Amino acid sequence: MSAYSITEPSKASKWVAGILVTLYMVITLLPLAWIISTGFKTGPDSISYPPKVIFSPSIEGYVNLFTDRTRATPEQLATMPPPDNFVDEIVQRRGEVVTGPSRFGERFLNSIIIGFGSTALSIVLGTLAAYAFSRFKVPLKDDLLFFILSTRMMPPIAVAIPIFLMYRQLGLSDTHLGMILLYTGVNISLAVWLLKGFIDEIPREYEEAALIDGYTRFQAFRKVVLPQAATGIASTAIFCLIFAWNEYAFAVLLTSGNAQTAPPFIPTIIGVGGQDWPAVAAGATLFLLPVMIFTILLRKHLLRGITFGAVRK
Amino acid sequence: MRAFLTGLLSFRRGPWENLATVLIGLGVVMLMQPFALWAFTWSFVVTLTGTVMFIITSHFPE
Amino acid sequence: MPDLPADTPVDRLARATPPTLARKVRGLSDRTIAWIFVAPTILLLLAINIFPLIWTIRLSFTNFRANRPNEPVEWVGLRNYQRILTDPDIWQTMQATAHFLFWTLFFQVLIGFTLAWLINRKFRGNDLMTTLIVIPMMLSPAVVGNFWTFLYQPQIGLINYAVEFVTGIPASSFTMLGSVSLAPWAIVIVDTWMWTPFVMLICLAGLRSIPDYIYEAAEVDRASKWRQFWTMTIPMVLPFLMLAVLFRGIENFKMFDLVVLLTGGGPGDTTLLSSIELKREAFEKWRTGYSSAYAIILFVTVFGLASIYVKALNKVKER
Fold it and tell me: C150, A280 in Cβ contact below 8 A?
């Protein structure tokens, strides 16, 4: 129990604050809850009015998400062998047949490859640069740091015009490598700024002791600084990953098939007469869930991440 | 005001940076205001001047 | 001590590497290492950001069209800039951007600060709630924006149902995204939903940076709570608030993904923000030279705001 303090809010005001914040939380999380629940609804349930809160769950949305289907006449269906798995069963019950897997899996995999590729590259380059900026006298340091930060502020569409032309010339359009390089270019500013903050916090004495023990700079960096910065590197990596994972503007303008990631793909999932909402919601759930989990894991470093390391708490 | 002017004349960073900030702010407002087309037309020049001034004057001594 | 078998990590490394390289590694000055460490980052940024930027500036003085790369390219001087800056339609998109920018900032600061102020009462469970409230801003704007079109559906959507439930206005009598008067507000609502937590988090950091003894001193001086709030809390949080406002301002000035998936600029160009207009000019009409000039105008504006942002950033860092 803490001692009585005149600045401690009264019990009543805590209650009121708690209730108001809870209310906001419920309202703000409702759309997310709606995404997750719509993913488990059947087509008719998802568009019923008034909106259904209680419904019998179905995995139809997920089946639709992962398959391409076509309508079949009752005669065609009658000639087909009885369904031997749950996917065929669900699809045939609606008078459709599966024609193959959908492209969602591919797009999701692209998101993973490009996300992890660009994150790894940004972290490697960013750690090196951040260490140099933190420990050495780099000429024009402030200008370089500002220049690095300002690159992240550029409007993506403005950058996309020359990148589009450049990639067309170099044959990098719609390739994984092209997207990895591009996302690294955007993420590296965040990586440098965040990591510089983390490395600044490691006392120089540790390295100096190591240098006196006969370590070279490289060794001191590898064996003393890197282990100390591990938490910082991990949380920076997650921020980079989340950016690359969520990015839409570059992805929609510079990729069309081969290297397209999930964000431009999910809005194009259509069914009969418009978007197939349970399937869209299922895709969105699979896509958003990892980020939700990462957000909870990152909670202690969130503030740093969103302010480029300026606010430390 | 007087301190501000002497600051400008002696090429100190503070007042020049503030002036540049004001110019950038003014340029942005001119760009998006709904009142006069001429202000919109000249907004870019104002913002550009402010930005260039900001980059140069951030190298002036404190 | 040359006779003793040396076995520090350095020596092991030295033995494992060829002699010349080992000498080189040992002999690198800090300055050289600094350059080796910084160079890859700078090179990548030059290739991905600066080179394209210079190319854009060059293109902005031409009438180049990316879909007809073989046509002769003419230098048109400042004509692109002149045309953009005297075009009432572009001016219109800037006003749509301004409406979006102003109201999103207004609501986000209002709600975000209030929330932070309430959370700072330190009631039980405030940490967990903060984490949960923050979730929307970390999600993909494209995927979330697309789903909001479903929530906004007039016949079946959750939002319209909620409005009917609360106010009694029939749900099918209005379409948030399809109506000229409602669409600009619909995008403000979604952006506010998504980014209020951002302002809240930064305000919370500002509130928590105020030491208790300041309030204690004020209590001793019998300053009223109202006075304490305006003369101490607000000025102390202001630098943090500035940071949040500038960052959201920059982000929303170049807003693309969320709004393009919500309305695509419609209905009737009422939500045609500057980035969406730029995308149309550059990637649908393929007026590359013209849109390059437009891009430079947006870029200079963002760059100017960014330099103020960095100044604000350093101010907060000093705290």
Answer: yes
